[in-house]
Amino acid sequence: MNIILLSGGSGKRLWPLSNDIRSKQFIKIFKKDDGSYESMVQRVYRQIKKVDTDAAVTIATSKAQVSAIHNQLGEEVGISVEPCRRDTFPAIALATAYLVDVKHTDPEEVVVVCPVDPYVDDDYFEALKKLSEQAENGEANIVLMGIEPTYPSEKYGYIIPESPEQTAQVKTFKEKPTAAMAEHYITQGALWNGGVFAYKLRYVLEIAHRMIDFTDYHDLFLKYDTLTKISFDYAVVEKEEKIQVQRFAGRWKDLGTWNTLTEAMEEAVVGKGVLNDACTGVHIVNEMDVPVLAMGLHDVVISSSPEGILVSDKEQSSYIKPFVDKFEQQIMFAEKSWGSFKVVDVESNALTIKVSLNAGHSMNYHSHRNRDEVWVAISGEGRTIVDGMEQKVKAGDVVTMSAGCRHTVFADTELKLVEVQLGEDITVSDKQKYELEY
Amino acid sequence: MNIILLSGGSGKRLWPLSNDIRSKQFIKIFKKDDGSYESMVQRVYRQIKKVDTDAAVTIATSKAQVSAIHNQLGEEVGISVEPCRRDTFPAIALATAYLVDVKHTDPEEVVVVCPVDPYVDDDYFEALKKLSEQAENGEANIVLMGIEPTYPSEKYGYIIPESPEQTAQVKTFKEKPTAAMAEHYITQGALWNGGVFAYKLRYVLEIAHRMIDFTDYHDLFLKYDTLTKISFDYAVVEKEEKIQVQRFAGRWKDLGTWNTLTEAMEEAVVGKGVLNDACTGVHIVNEMDVPVLAMGLHDVVISSSPEGILVSDKEQSSYIKPFVDKFEQQIMFAEKSWGSFKVVDVESNALTIKVSLNAGHSMNYHSHRNRDEVWVAISGEGRTIVDGMEQKVKAGDVVTMSAGCRHTVFADTELKLVEVQLGEDITVSDKQKYELEY
Q1: Chain A closest CA to B236's CA: distance in Å?
Q2: Is A74 exposed, middle or buried (0-12, 13-18, 19+ CB in 10 A)?
Q3: pTM for the full model?
């Protein structure tokens, strides 16, 4: 099975765990059988591989997420990088071209497109396989998944099928109706549209070529920023007459807000936290090193990270975005392909950061125009290169780098550094990258 | 006026702002007219000086608080240090001997003893002056302050006077009655016992000499740990027949819990914090650099510091102590006489700390047996002494110190350092102090 996972925007709706560079799908919040935690993207990837070991997974995403994806899923996974945001049709067209031109997948093969963040069981991935098989037999150009509604939601799109069969022709679509209308559609057999569909690669490529003037993946990638923003639903799904839907009745949750996310959490507390007996319906997700104590609260979610602290009534947690948008704050924590960093102290002319490099990884070879830096290695072993000179580094070693000096560090084992940045104008944009010549 | 302020125990009841070394009285939580914040002890000290510029203030406290007191009140204030905790009678006897033997106060002078943490207006200190004058005239050996009760509290002791006059003989004392009994006492003219009283120094010294075998302050200080724990009420107040009470009807609040403390806060938010409109009765006290966002909460206090995060229903906030006692955690923040420190990162074999030294101050000259240290100066100027050698230090400079090496730093301006401690057994007790020879 070929799968394109759409890994969407930054999303501040799960602040303080999600931020401009860490999207909700990378938060490690789901407990695994071995007691460790996995993120939405790790959970979905693991589930796909369980149902189909040979599944070829491609993640369609922005540049900002590439590091986090490699960090969490390894280097194996295919990534179709969108140079900028251009809505779902250009994104899916690019990923489709990527499969054909870069991965050399036969254009007659089927691909299933699905969001990266549904909270589902394994039967959902079995259903994706059936979707793929149905698209294969060619009865329809697109086969959608229709999710059996559990309540007349106002926030989903509805698919109305011709018949109540397991696989049926699509009659029409209805976008976000009122609860009363939704109820009416459901009596007619309407299904939720979860944004999941299967098609033969050639089919979408042909539509793309009709709509966009391009030769191949590389050409499409280069002119991506000139493309018109248009959704896949609008460009393809709603115009297609040979379109079917397959019913899916298993668990399906959209974990878009703290309210729905906490419903999917197996434990009340992730991280250091204590609830007294007078608490009911309280969830704590604490990414800090210090404890959270909750006393006598009801239906409240508490989440803390190096970015900030949210304490919200669960219902009210859907409304945090405008408040979070107003917080003007630098990124305090990020996962990169080579490890992670955390800002531990902020002064006006000095920033102190803990950098953790995974074994075998290194940061880019780079310099800064306006700041000096000091590294104090606190654990592990590695090698620094400063202005071309390589030196071994281990816990306790200190490296000083003046502004303009080119530097990087390789981790031979997991390596942790305290980095002190010093200067009057410290910004993440003050960074020149260089090729390292060997 | 002579005043002894009793500055009591550590108090975890205002965790995470109070901890084993920072008591609640040092938390800067009260907004001043100039927009800055002051602590309970700063507020009380300022109020005393406003009512009586010449007031001689002595703070009776433990060794652990000396740094914080000098940091917040300066070097002028007298401090009677209790070598260990021995309840209020030994503490008051020691402070009384300190006034006579160290400060050379005439034993015929009067002193007023009062807790350091009442939340009161200036009229309270005017009342202390009257208490002092009344003790001066010698009608009684002790003159207590009796606070007009505002409700039949079960948590205070009651003083029942002989008459309803402003100054009256004390008839009897009643300890923490039921609400019904308290109501009954109040109809009899009972007053709350706020632990405030005035006496002539000689009077308490004589009782102390009768109860304890000692020659002077120095001798009492040396044998302090052998003294029996006994309260001043039990040892003196309840046995004295020549005892009067003066009524006080002004504002008086005991800020022992988050519930009562937040009642005394002028603003809903201290530090970085945002409440949405759906919040009612919510207070935020945030000592961290990152924001707190509260959504749809009612009668909740949120407090965060480098020690942890409390989110509590206000009523329930009285019950946090047993939970906090279970948190096994190192001190993450402290104010010292020379400045302050904050733990910014904790790893198993490395601890990163931000040290802020006030201009003109230095830490002790010291060494560590089991850890190396690295200093990175991030702002200001000063001088380090490492194994006897002095060197200038400014932002960007790095100093490395191996285990065993003696070191200190003097701040010529306000000086901030990032200190990285490295070793397998990092504890605050691993510290040898030395005299610095010049």
Answers
A1: 40
A2: exposed
A3: 0.81
